[in-house]
């Protein structure tokens, strides 16, 4: 039954069969050819990229009776015994299950005995970072000066958890994720050997999901082979693979680049109606946005492959816009589990990515207000703002976003130059609200819309900033109605005291 598993059936039997790890294969071949073997090796890297396979190949070639150019011949008695797991001299240990010091003491005791059949006794310790601190300490002396007939090969996916004292005693090799091209070549060769035809779109989906892991890709391919005896189509693959549609992903990104919110929202709605996994769809959007960002930043020769429909819009899109979109889609993950509507996090990400278009191009006509002389109380006026540009910005926001304007009234211009507009306010609540990324971006966009040049806007909390305050009318008396002189600016604490006193009265 186990031989039906593709990643075991097609496990490489020689170094030149390793995919995407040529730098490691060549080094190990040279060591074998020149008889310069180390007593301890440490293989690190992501899961499913060939660490354990390479360890078994190394164990095979050092014990091969007739190695050829650093490769095992796979025909001698030693090679056959190792391939068929019929030797007691190759010991594989799962450190995730045997983590204690007693387990390592058994290994040390076992290493003292000479091999019963092979030239070398090889200990392969997988996930070595799972060993306890005491177990690592017990292993140190043996690892530093092992018997001449012993080789230790350790593998880990979390190198940072391995103590420095262990690292310094090993020859270390770093394994890489497999490239899309290497994975594609590997999967096509397996499909050909299994006499299956598979659509290129299905292979692209497998490669995208596997994320550089050969074992994951081969496991998915094995599941797909169970669906059909001849050809695997995209429709059949959708039964096994998490459903997503890269064409729809490209359409969504295109709508974002063109600032077409209606089209973007319609694309999301269609994916929901078609039964697409929206979380997978979101991750695919992040991948494509990242590729778009790289496309705008790197040299043409290093650009990733993108749908042709995105080339022209990207030429007109800034990196800042793509970064904002990436952040929006990344932040959407925190709302996936709590949102009552599965599509809502994606829809919010789209709106945040195109936030500048949320502000209406033309403000609505102001509603006429009829002031009837029912009371001689003075008409309330908006607090005075500093600076002509800032006054125009506040007035523009007040006609369309009154709630935001209330916070803008609570800050004053501290300094203004050709590059930046520096504001400050005495109330932390309003300053924090205005410093929210979306609000701050809106204010900066308005500096360009109204002033003709986009300025960097900074808003600081400064209790010493004073606001112009009109005298408070608390009683309908002649003295209260009579004209009064202009009040002098008050400190923020004095304003607060007046408010408190007014309530006490």
**The CATH topology of the largest domain:** Rossmann fold
CATH top-level class of the largest domain: Alpha Beta
Alpha-carbon distance between the termini?
87 Å
Report helical residue fraction.
40-55%
Strand content: 5-15%
The CATH architecture designation of the largest domain is 3-Layer(aba) Sandwich
Domains counted in the coordinates: how many?
Answer: 5
Arrangement of strands in the largest sheet: 2-3-4-1-5
Could you provide a short overview of the structure?
The chain is of the alpha/beta class and 505 residues long.
Descriptive account of the structure:
With 505 residues, this protein is an alpha/beta fold. It folds into 5 domains: 2-174, Rossmann fold (3-Layer(aba) Sandwich), CATH 3.40.50; 180-237; 246-357, Zinc Finger, Delta Prime, domain 3 (Up-down Bundle), CATH 1.20.272.10; 388-461, 2-Layer Sandwich (GMP Synthetase, Chain A, domain 3); 469-505, no CATH class. Helix content is 48%, strand content 10%. The longest helix is centred in the middle third of the chain and has 20 residues, at 278-297. The radius of gyration is 34 Å and the shape is elongated. The relative contact order is 0.06.
